[in-house]
Amino acid sequence: MSSTAQGEVKPVSTEPDENWVCNVCGFIWKGDTPPKECPQCSSHGSEYSSSKAKKKLRYDGEKFDVLLINGSNHRANNTGFMMDLVEEVLKEKGVSYRRYNLNEYHINHCWCCYSMRDNACTYPCRDQLDDMPAFHEMIIASKAVIIGSPINWNNMSARLKDFLDRLNCIQNQNLLKKPGLTNGKIVGITVSGHEDGATKTAMDIYLYFQQMGYLLAPFGISYRTHGAQFNTNTDSEYLRNDPLVLFKVKGMANNVVEMMNLDLEKKLKGKLVPVAE
Tell me, which fold does domain 15-53 have in CATH? Predict the structure, then answer.
């Protein structure tokens, strides 16, 4: 019980103060801790974050080597595990990096300014209303990018597609006869899935970066699927205990680092012909 200034006795609320939001579906959960499973989309409780107001993403300007982007709707599931393996390699090699799980950030659909007129799509992006401008700055500042994606109907996730679409303002610098901002940088890709579509998903992702002047690291694509004959709830255990996953994903990350260390971005500066569409 508590007392007011006038001596009135009021009951103390025992209701939890914390609200939690599912980063997958947006469901709000009220409690001291998030639920073990989201009642709306069945995601694991680790997908929940505090619903306290998030600040807009800002880039602090510090240079770093590798930008890691987990494009899955589920930051803590199979693609997230693969990105954990990538992190292990970068830590072992002493490579500076930053990792972002896209489901924690606000990224609008591309406004497709280019379809209005060529020079309407420029950098900085006209859409400064979400978190993407900070990602633009980090794409330009980093030496390499490693993208993780699940397979959604033989393709990447919609979240990742929005992210990649929003890179058009950087790619369009070449078409506007301005200096390329990403020519000679390195990209690596890792894909996880239940069944078909891994290679197509990886190549769809790579085509974006190819148009931005990125170089795919040798053996720079890694993927692993479980199989349609199995229930999806067994995928995580399988992937976490399959030695090929460790070999492929860590090998890809190693190859990105070795390629990055050649400093081709610097060596190729001013020498590339931007054959982009």
Answer: Rubrerythrin, domain 2 (2.20.28)
Spatial strand order of the sheet with 48-50 comes to 28-30, 19-22, 48-50
Measured CA to CA, the distance from residue 92 to residue 88 in angstroms comes to 6
| E strand or H helix that includes residue 217 | strand 215-225
pTM score of the predicted model: 0.89
Q: What are phi and psi of 30, to 5 degrees?
A: -105, 125
- CA–chain centroid gap for 173, Å, is 23
Q: What is the residue whose two structure tokens read 């901002």?
A: 181
**Cα–Cα dist 71/27, whole Å:** 20
Q: Domain 66-267, what fold?
A: Rossmann fold (3.40.50)
Closest alpha carbon to 23 in 88, 121, 100, 90: 100
pLDDT tens by residue, 228-273: 899 998 999 999 999 999 999 999 999 999 999 999 999 999 999 9
